[in-house]
């Protein structure tokens, strides 16, 4: 639930209860005041009646004046206490019964006790009460409506800067060069939030750029010493007075230098893929590329006497030629490297997926770990980056990659399940 | 051939100098942009080997200078940066080839020979070694006037050997040249042996000179001595 609706709910509940309690109290207070006024009026009537009786020594005639009804009744000894009460009475001038306020009490005349009873109409006070109630109700409804509308529209407006900042945060991508747009707000909290988010984004991007440059520079700086090592070795082996054992040592240094150089290049490539720096795309027919690749690997395949079965259908892809080349290189060289002599490789290409299957060790690999960096089998001579690169290339194009071990075949399946190439984020 | 090496890394520069200095080659070297341009303004060379990351600027400046002066020096860029952008930029300003560090000296030599032949006039696009004549355009090889049929790999191999004649070539260098380091042959050199065997057999079919020598476990040498 949004904060605004939460806020709306709370204000409406609170306002409503306060208003209801207030209205009840208000009603009783008005009622009480009105009754007191009526009772004062009745007391006056009583004093008038008693004054008249004391003066004239007789009961006043039963005349109705001012809609008041006064009645007297002779009492037999009992004394009626004076009390005020609500009653209904018949007004002869008007049809039907009316609500009234009455007083009864005892008075003495000529040694006899009389009970007197005076009723006056409550109609005018009730009318007043009705009007006041109506006005109050209208006011409450009005207030309610105003509150609701304010909360909904004015407060919604108030929150706009917040949603703009949030939107930018959601779209934030550390590797993109897009600047963070400042959100102007007169509200201190939002202005502060905007400042904080802006500074954070700037800092994170700065750090990221530094790290990227560092990786880039470090990898490049390593290449020159590597070139020195290689060229020294190339010069060194010109001396044919060296013994066989020394040549063997040199060969090992060559291998290590070569591996270091490949590792370095793979790292640089990973950085490039992760930063979307490879953006060239062209339409290529994958089945052609695969066949071409197999030709390139022919010597390696025949040296291990590996048989290759292919079932390729026409599949057009709009991808970077460079990346698809690396993807296939890594998959094929893995399938060869981790294979045994006289082994098999199956390559299946359909409209929905590409599968590489190869025979190899009888142990199922950890399907989540194998795609991680520097994850490699104990006997592997590779860099440990091959499948990490494959996974990252798949990620760039929104493909899926899965590993299975079925019937002695290690199977890597790439699914082109996406309808369109999703994001080349620019 | 007169070659100017522009490279700031001492170890690399010296080895390039030693490797490339042969009977017919004169090599000079310098370590920065200013020295390179002053040398080029005074002398003319056949070849410039140019590092891009120099202490006082980018090597592209030398290329621009050569282009502005309409010079004919062939240029091979040597760079630690393997980016396509740099490669295209260099080749656009007039470089003839682009070599990424680290590289084998034998690879550099082979590139120099290839570029040099390509840039020469039509009549001179043959690489000759004693009775062996390699036509770079037609991609044919004749020995004593007899054409021998080589596969693409064997042709590339022979050219590589002839370009580095008299030098010991590491088999790592040969594998990288023939299959590229992207293929990641991971120290499996079995397939090289078979190509070498076939090449040697084809050559020995038409000539009695066995130029191709195996050097212990390290590599090969193509020599007439």
From TrEMBL, chain B:
The modification 4-aspartylphosphate is found at residue 51. Keywords: DNA-binding, Phosphoprotein, Transcription, Transcription regulation, Two-component regulatory system. Residues 124-224 bind DNA. Residues 124-224 form the OmpR/PhoB-type domain. Residues 2-116 form the Response regulatory domain. InterPro entries: CheY-like_superfamily, OmpR/PhoB-type_DNA-bd, Sig_transdc_resp-reg_receiver, WalR-like, WH-like_DNA-bd_sf. SMART domains: REC (SM00448), Trans_reg_C (SM00862). It holds the Pfam family Response_reg. It comes from the Bacteria. The keyword DNA-binding applies. This is Response regulator transcription factor. It comes from Mucilaginibacter aquariorum.
